[in-house]
Specification:
Length: 647
């Protein structure tokens, strides 16, 4: 039976191999400290955190996330460690919560390796604190117990570490926050949950992988709606309530349950997957929630498999150590028999874990097979027949597909990477060489060309999913190096103007968009949207910057950073095409820009991490089919609709 702890209460731990699961309403940093009998932490090497995620007996997540899984082996801790304190902190950064009082109360659960909860604790009553000691595992008279702590620190991690006796508390806290900031630049933003929290799952589906879903977080506060969002971005909910699709994390009442599904499967058989089998007001919203549910299910299924394999390997090592520590087993056949028995047990556990994973993957593959053909254009790949029936939409969709995500255990199961519209942050398409196999087999010139092509197809998708005239694309190509790849945009006439070249062209485009951001922000603050100049285009804007930093002086770099930080809230978005190494000439001044943008690559690369368990996912950009003219046909229809709107 699960013990629901309150602050200060303790509970005996029945086993020493554990998982600690953390669920929060927004990304948090999860770590742990190893203390002696008095709780003193003897140095930074006794702290597990994203920059140093493993210490003896303990492993934590490598990044800030809404959900965490911490692995603990109390038997593997150093003999002098008597206390393990689980630490949570808010990541620092512009626009992020500064105290736990501003976010949903974190929930912590201590579980066995099979997912069975031993003790849980909800950290209520926090206010100005930005770091908290959530709970501690402590050794008393040879037995281990867990205690709910909930001690918060307004001074953040530095104050928490100082209280535990860490000599270089401030330096350690700063190093952790720097590592977290770098990780957030790589992470896939988790989707906002509905108020019901979890999607409807099939009874025999991937949720049976062994990982329990966390308690649903409280929805985050609604940010201000950008000025100039079209009225067509609103629709009416059943019952008359407006649903605002114009900005992410919209507030709604609880959505209705999914529509009736296919007849139930025969007993003992997995349920038949159905497209749109999730909660939501519309089919698009149900598909959106279903895709993110598939993403989460695959992440958790693979995490359960990897955890089981790690446990099997660790158990084999422990059994071999115990058997071979007896000198009598080192001679004759006893040692060989011990090795064979340990390996057989390892293979049995691993085999059972693989069977469970295969069942989950088969169910997810069946679900993907029915979901993919049902996707609307904004969610679909370029090879989906929905593009052959494309018409310029009257409303902005909820989200846009940027590419596909895969895990090594399921290379044939792509999960669409969806981001909410309007874009919450810009995108950096890295044209440099990475450590991936695909990048290693591609020349530098080819990578740069593919990066621009990726930007063009992404811009085309954005133009295609917005109503006519409500999305504009500007291009800065200082040296004219991307003329060939930009030809679909230039030839169709969908650009706001010819690609800007040279230092003067760069300055002109940046000045124009900076002025727009300034004017709209002032109008929002003054509550005077009707006072904007009549020539100001209040639609959404995308700026594609190629070959950065060529053609950029210090003033232009400052304006670019300003657009990246302030532009998304008022409808100006940035799409960088550049090699990160080339941009290092500007030094740390560009680090905030790099961290604020979502980095994607023009070839397959495993650099994105999920917000649940921190897997490294392989990202693959969307490509048009070989020989297909779907891109040109779609852009032609967009251009025709734009011309019709101007008449």
């Amino acid at each position: 039976m699960t013990a629901e702890l309150v602050r200060g209460q303790n509970h005996t731990l029945p086993q020493t191999r554990l998982e600690i699961r953390v669920s929060a309403g927004s990304p948090v940093v999860a770590g742990a400290t190893l203390g002696d009998e008095r709780g003193t932490v003897r140095g930074a090497e006794r702290i597990a955190h994203p920059a140093s995620h493993r210490v003896p007996g303990l492993e934590v997540s490598r990044q800030a996330a809404a959900d965490h899984r911490l692995a603990v082996d109390l038997d593997a801790l150093p003999a002098e460690v008597h206390r393990v304190t689980v630490v949570l902190a808010l990541p620092m950064g512009a626009g992020r919560p500064v105290s736990f009082g501003a976010v949903a109360a974190p929930f912590v659960a201590v579980t066995g390796l099979d997912g069975t909860e031993i003790a849980t604790f909800t950290l209520t009553g926090l206010d100005t604190e930005s770091a908290v000691s959530a709970l501690e595992l402590y050794r008393r008279q040879g037995a281990w117990k867990v205690r709910a702590v909930g001690q918060g620190y307004a001074a953040g991690l530095a104050g928490l570490f100082a209280d535990q006796g860490v000599a270089e508390a401030a330096e350690t806290a700063a190093a952790i926050q720097e590592a977290v900031a770098s990780g957030l630049a790589r992470s896939v933003t988790p989707p906002p949950r509905t108020t019901e929290g979890e999607r409807v799952r099939h009874p025999a589906g991937p949720a049976a992988a062994g990982a329990q879903a966390p308690a649903p977080p409280v929805p985050e506060a609604q940010p201000a709606e950008p000025l100039g969002d079209p009225a067509s971005a609103r629709t009416e909910a059943p019952g008359g309530g407006p649903i605002d699709y114009a900005h992410p994390r919209r507030q709604t009442s609880a959505p209705p349950p999914p529509p009736p599904t296919a007849p139930p499967a025969a007993p003992g058989q997995p349920a038949r997957p159905v497209a749109g089998d999730a909660t939501g007001w519309s089919m698009d919203e149900r598909l959106y929630n279903q895709i993110w549910g598939m993403f989460e299910d695959l992440a958790r299924a693979v995490a359960a498999y990897r955890s089981a394999v790690d446990f099997a390997e660790s158990r084999m090592d422990q059994e071999l150590d115990r058997a071979l520590s007896d000198p009598r087993n080192r001679i004759g056949g006893a040692g060989d028999r011990a090795r064979e028995a340990a390996r057989a047990k390892r293979d049995e556990l691993t085999g059972r874990a693989r069977e469970a994973l295969e069942r989950d993957l088969a169910q997810l593959a069946a679900e993907s097979a029915v979901v993919e053909p049902a996707l609307p254009a904004a969610y679909a790949g370029w090879d989906n027949p929905v593009w052959h029936a494309y018409r310029v939409p009257m409303e902005i969709p909820m989200a846009l597909r940027l590419g596909d995500l895969r895990l090594g255990e399921a290379p044939d199961l792509p999960i669409p990477l969806l981001v909410r519209l309007p874009l919450e942050r810009g995108i950096w398409i890295d044209s440099g060489r990475t450590a991936s196999e695909a990048a290693a087999s591609t020349t530098g010139d080819q990578l740069r060309g593919l990066a621009v092509e990726t930007a063009v197809t992404l811009a085309a998708r954005l133009l295609a999913v917005y109503p006519a005239g409500e999305f504009s694309v500007h291009v800065v190509d200082p040296a004219g190096a991307a003329a060939g790849q930009l030809s679909p945009l230039v030839g169709s006439g969908v650009l706001a103007g010819p690609p800007a070249a040279g230092a003067e062209g760069v300055a002109s485009v940046l000045a124009h968009l900076t002025r727009r951001v300034d004017l709209v922000q002032m109008a929002i603050r003054a509550g005077a949207a009707d006072s904007l100049p009549p020539d100001l285009d209040t639609g959404e804007h995308l700026l594609i910057v190629n070959d950065f930093p060529h053609g950029f002086d210090d003033r232009a770099v400052t304006q670019l950073r300003y657009l990246a930080d302030e532009g998304p809230s008022v409808g100006v978005h940035l799409l960088m095409v550049a090699d990160r190494e080339d941009a290092r000439a500007y030094g740390p001044v560009l680090d905030p820009l790099w961290r604020s943008l979502l980095r994607i690559t023009p070839v397959a690369d495993d650099h994105l991490a999920d917000p649940w368990v921190g897997h490294a996912w392989t990202y693959e950009p969307l490509r048009t089919p070989q020989g297909s003219r779907v891109l040109e046909q779609v852009l032609a229809l967009v251009a025709e609709a734009r011309r019709g709107g101007r008449r």
